[in-house]
Amino acid sequence: MSGIRWLVLCVLVLGPGAAVAEEPEVDGGLEGRMAVVREVLRDVPLIDGHNDTPWAIRSHVDNRLGEFDFNDTTGFDRPMQTDIRRLRAGGVGAVFWSVWVPTELSGPEAVTTVIEQIDLVHRLTQKYPEDLEMALTAADVRRIHSGGRIASLIGAEGGHCLNDSLAVLRQLFALGVRYLTLTHWDNTAWADAATDAPQHDGLTDFGRAVVGEMNRLGMMVDLSHVSPQTMADVLAVTRAPIIFSHSGASRLNPHPRNVPENILASVAENRGVVMVDFVPVFLSDTYLGWRAAAKAEKTRLETYYPGDPQAVKDAMDLWMGDHPPPAVDVEDVADHIDEVRRVAGIDHVGIGSDFDGMPKGPEGLDDVSGYPLLLAELLDRGYSRDDVAKVAGLNVLRVMADVERVAAELQRTEAPNDLLLVDLDGPQHDETSSN
User: Where are the strands (E) in 218-367, listed by range?
Assistant: First the structure.
């Protein structure tokens, strides 16, 4: 983020005495909208549904927090997009930290890794008690925000981390996980992913058991990354609202990670929420085409320079100079929010950035200090103050509370499910599977 934008955000979001002696000149229209954003975020926690900071910390310092300063993470060779300083500048009230596990890991190793990442979130939160506090419920988020701290929530990304075990699912919930993304890039043994060849025609019987047990526990079902058929299957069987923790709208960009229009309509019927992500390749069809061309060029160069990665890099640098990536900015994110609102309604849209899970965010949303610019853009498009409050966090809080209510009702009548995958799907189960 540029120094000027940082100073502007400090002044407009935190107040004139926050970080600078001189207030920079700000366009009056933007200043007025940012003042409204500041007022909204004083009352309503801005909730980001998906942030990959935990894996970024693992990548940088191998989860050794004694070597890590979360107040400022800009000093790494690959600077992070998240730290406390910029979370405060962005007016953030709560974050779902993603405890992601690569799909290359399987079995007990995947379970161990997800627990290590959960442990990291707890330790990170404990290390910064003046700024962060663990949250398990919607009421916790409201209380923590009212107390001036940022609520730390946990979402597990990729159902392969369960090792096909409902017992592991229950223990993840006990450790604080409040949503599970059913797949990542690859299928699991019980659900199809959006970016893998269909294997199950959506959700298997065991997958339906996973959704049922999540409903009973009070864990939100996250449909980002799953195939359209898996989305439809989950919406047909879930007894609680679902979420998309970080997804866009397919009509604007047909990337398989985005949500088809018919599913958006079903999300409204389900009372769920789609939290729009900031990843350029998911936002812009033009950017998606550029990236495909860049991949094709790299493949071509590798055939010309076999075994010579430096020659490939040098030639690729020249190509990039002649073919710069198309611009993607805050307006592209707002376009996807508009589209979810158009189809599903204002009560069913939120924010799920994917910061620290992407190399570079859209212009204006370079890091976690940029959320107010997005909300100001929505105001400029005619969204009311109440609309902005819903997008910022009220919609997610409503879903969380609804999921908690459904769980309380189900726990009065249902015991924990003790089925195994082999009980329902028999020979489909492969203990050596990478998923």
Answer: 220-222, 243-244, 273-276, 349-351
303-336 burial by CB neighbour count: b if 16+ within 10 A, else e? eeeeeeeeebeebbeeeeeeeeeeebbbbbbbbb
Residue ranges of domains in the chain: 43-284+328-420
> Quick check: is 52 catalytic?
yes
Q: In whole angstroms, what is the distance from residue 359 CA to residue 366 CA? A: 10
User: Is 317 among the residues known to form the active site?
Assistant: no
pTM of the predicted protein model: 0.89
Q: Provide DSSP, 2-15.
A: -HHHHHHHIIIII-
Beta strand 220-222 pairing with 177-181: parallel
- Is 110:163 a contact under the CB 8 Å cutoff? yes
Q: What span, in angstroms and rounded, lies between the C-alpha atoms of 240 and 219?
A: 9
Fold of the CATH domain 43-284+328-420: TIM Barrel (3.20.20)
User: pLDDT tens, 49-86?
Assistant: 999 999 999 999 999 999 899 999 999 999 999 999 99
* Separation between Cα atoms, residue 133 and residue 382, nearest integer Å: 34
Identified catalytic residue from 184, 200, 255, 348: 184
Check if the beta carbon of residue 219 is closer than 8 Å to that of residue 197.
no
- Best CA proximity match to 271, nearest among 407, 401, 414: 401
Active site includes 246?
A: yes
Q: Say whether 338 is catalytic.
A: no
Cα-flanking dihedrals φ and ψ of residue 79, to 5°? -55, 140
pLDDT in tens, 138-164: 999 999 999 999 999 999 999 999 999
Helix axis angle, 371-380 relative to 28-43, nearest 10°? 110
157 is catalytic: yes
Dihedral of CA 357/51/255/239: which sign? positive
**C-alpha closest to that of 261 among 271, 252, 269:** 252
Q: What are phi and psi of 191, to 5 degrees?
A: -155, 140
Closest CA relative to residue 84, chosen from 96, 63, 70, 97: 70
Selecting among 354, 356, 367, 425, the annotated active-site residue is: 354
DSSP string, 195-237: TS--SSSSB-HHHHHHHHHHHHHTPEEE-TTB-HHHHHHHHHH
Q: Is 225 part of the annotated catalytic residue set?
A: yes
Q: How far is CA 435 from CA 103, 115, 219, 301, 399, in A?
A: 6, 17, 21, 32, 29
- Catalytic residue flag (residue 354): yes
User: Are 121 and 57 a contacting pair, CB within 8 Å?
Assistant: no
